[in-house]
Amino acid sequence: MALSRVCWARSAVWGSVVTPGHFFTRRLQLGRSGLAWGAPRSSKLHLSPKADVKNLMSYVVTKTKAINGKYHRFLGRHFPRFYVLYTIFMKGIISIPPFANYLVFLLMYLFPRQLLIRHFWTPKQQTDFLDIYHAFRKQSHPEIISYLEKVIPLISDAGLRWHLTDLCTKIQRGTHPAIHDILALRECFSNHPLGVNQLQALHVKALSRAMLLTSYLPPPLLRHRLKTRTTVIHQLDKALAKLGIGQLTAQEVKSACYLRGLNSTHIGEDRCRTWLGEWLQISCSLKETELSLLLHNVVLLSTNYLGTRR
Questions:
Q1: 307 near 175, Cβ under 8 Å?
Q2: How many other CB atoms sit within 10 Å of the CB of residue 94?
Q3: CA separation for the pair 306, 136 (Å, rounded)
Q4: pTM
Q5: What's the rounded Cα separation, in Å, for the pair 192 and 152?
Q6: What is the pLDDT of residue 90?
Q7: Are 210 and 222 in contact (CB under 8 A)?
Q8: Closest CA to 263 of 126, 169, 156
């Protein structure tokens, strides 16, 4: 009786009579449905988060490459000359930061002297910009002459002291020195105190500015750069002397003069050829140990070229 009452009480709570067989069958069905619910889905209907991100990135990269290719073909087809400039700067420092390539056009327009090479300047820009660069190196000329005057007491030979004093005085008075005035000082510039390795640090910095080289480097490195530049010019001078100045065009003559210190933008072709002939005569007379004189010749021979002569 007690057992039957318990069973009837449970049936009242659950709403139905629960028999052992029915309870076992229900649990078996739940177990099977649970296995069915936990079964893995088909691979066609499911993608992992990593795969989704990878596919998205691949799509974006592909589309970006396609758009960039169309952009380059458009520039090359419609603006071929400008496309050459664009590709040059795209491969340089400007295009390294992300999205910086879009600033190339604006920067080239705003800063043509700093970003464009000389071949892409307009004729007016060439004249203006070369004047600016020559003004930079001309600022160091008085400083270099003063350094030469300071080392005069250090020269042991009295004759060389007199020649250097006379040369500095002529330049300061506005007289263009003669070739023999410069060649008379070859011995001074081959060793102490005016050899390249014996020059003071400030003297080396001033010469670097006169050669349009940066002066913000340690003196040993500046000396190495000056030696390298002077050696290259000396070798070019020998080759040019064999070829002959007459074989050069007017533009080539002016460029050669400007490289060697003369502002040839406002000087006639004939005067430029005359000056270049004087330079070659001095340069081809010097030995490798006397190239410090050729380095100073950038200042000595170019100063007061259109002034009076002795």
A1: yes
A2: 16
A3: 20
A4: 0.66
A5: 11
A6: 63
A7: no
A8: 126
